[in-house]
Design a protein that fits this description.
Helix content is about 5%, strand content about 45%. With about 120 residues, it is mainly β. The termini are far apart.
Length: about 120
């Protein structure tokens, strides 16, 4: 079955770093564009970083220069290195396919549990 499992979140100080990981299974991972999304309380979910099957990357302006997305097709993982963290980065972070590029995996809106990130002093 399709499964997306995020990990690596936690509490960080402003200016600190975290590395998020996503383990994928149940589909042909290597042919899908993937992305990291985040959702803060009261806000819409937003795509912050994306990577194509060929390794091209794209970032939201709010995280450009601070976050780096990467993938390992052998391990079927996608990671998000987060540096120079700001309080406004606080959110629950999710991985999924980049829907605009590769479309959905299933006939319904599937999301994993997500991993929470809190940036506070």
């Amino acid at each position: 079955q399709v499964r997306l499992v995020e990990s690596g979140g936690g509490l960080a100080q402003p200016g600190g770093s975290l590395r998020l990981s996503c383990a994928a299974s149940g589909f042909i991972f290597s042919i899908y564009a993937m992305g990291w999304y985040r959702q803060a309380p009261g806000k819409q979910r937003e795509l912050v970083a994306a990577i194509t099957s060929g390794g091209s990357t794209n970032y939201a302006d709010s995280v450009k220069g601070r976050f780096t997305i990467s993938r390992d097709n052998g391990k079927k993982t996608v990671t998000l290195q987060m540096n120079s963290l700001k309080p406004e980065d606080t959110a629950v972070y999710y991985c999924n396919t980049d829907l605009a590029v590769s479309g959905p995996l299933l006939d319904y809106d599937y999301w994993g549990q997500g991993t929470p990130v809190t940036v506070s002093s």
